[in-house]
Amino acid sequence: MLDVGKVVHTPSFVLEYDDFLRNLRVIANLQEELPCTFLLALKGFGMHAVFPELALCAKGATASSLNEALLASEYFKEVHAYAPVYHPSEFSSLVKLASHVTFNSMDEYHRYEKQLGGALAGLRINPEYSPVKTELYNPCSPGSRLGIPSSLLQTLPAGISGLHAHNLCESGADAMAETLQQIEKLYGHLFPSLSWLNLGGGHLVTKKGYDLPLFRKTVLDFHHRYPHIKLFFEPGAAYVWEAGVLVSEVLDMVTNNGVTTAMLDTSFAAHMPDCLEMPYTPRLRGASIYEGGEIPEGKQRVRLGGSSCLAGDWVGEYLLSDTVKVGDRLVFEDMMHYTMVKTTMFNGLSLPDIAIYRNGMYEVVKHFSYADYRNRLS
Predict the structure, then answer these.
(1) Which residue in 145, 185, 233, 368 has its CB near the most CB atoms, within 10 A?
(2) Domain 34-240 in CATH: superfamily?
């Protein structure tokens, strides 16, 4: 576990390397046991300092833009491209890097089909099922712009060899099994013409309690029914689930109308936007989230306040020690996935350092400066 005393500057995203390797072993073992292939979704994790290790596990990466494709091509043997819509100025460069290209609509496929070269073409489908409750993250909500409904895909156009679905978010094996069942129900008439099926991300196979036996059974049963279809998964979070933290420092303590807020050197709006978007209250190492009731002796009820000017830049509430003070460090759990990739420099706030804690040693792999802020604006 990270020794916070070795963190030289806060805020800092810190990858806990041993936990990261543990996740890679789980995924590598699944690929050895089962007829399926795991890709890395770059949109979820882009810390390329550890892409060499990732590339030994993930057989390729999924890119949603030219920039992601360029980065993926430096480390991974295969680049699978999918974007809700491709930019005309980027497509010719992107397709040169891609082994698979998935289109969000039939019209878009026909617009680009003559430019595909040797890349395999696929269509994104909408399985009309998702366990995701937050509408912002639900790609199968009514009227969704993502994926072709089954009513509009009775036959496959010439040149299409695969289908791609994405409808999960940190989901279990039961949701994956239900997804596959739903796809087979709605699109099974197309399966004889397919050579690959990509089930997207959201497969949290490394989470404690994930039903791996059900995952194995679902994959094997599908393979027995359709041995000609190669099955892809492209998680982002699973590779780094509970394998990294965000370390912050308390800069001030303020009280207003009976509410005490610990003011931090990090921002939820700028550095942890999912906390406000989902929303959710992140776990804090060594502390508990206040859920009502009597406050135990030696504890106090505290909000955590971010350092930006946004009025809503806060989360909580927590039960912290009644001796918490300026200079104390707080460690937010599970901050590697869909966090670093979404950070902004709103208010001119510097981005957190990016670091690795390995063999008891703390190594900063990226520190941001004024130049990073200035050069991105003009």
Answers:
(1) 233
(2) Alanine racemase (3.20.20.10)
